[in-house]
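Minutes, project check-in
Item: structure for the 67-residue chain
Input as provided by the requester:
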Amino acid sequence: MSLAEIKSAITELSPEDMVELVAFIQAHDGLAWEQEIETDFAPGGKHHSVLADIDAAIDEGRGSPLS
């Protein structure tokens, strides 16, 4: 099924089905975002060095509680 066909089918949904579809897409998008963050900050990830810098700052006493 093409994106154009999906878009066309969406316009035919009932309001209740539209709400369910939106919830599904939001949940799916949230999972993708969580996976991307996990990958980026994992060892070897593109932002892993940021965590190492934060850990070093905390170990050196250069951090403070947020609350």
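Outcome recorded: The helical segments are 3-10, 15-41, 48-59.
No further action items on this chain.
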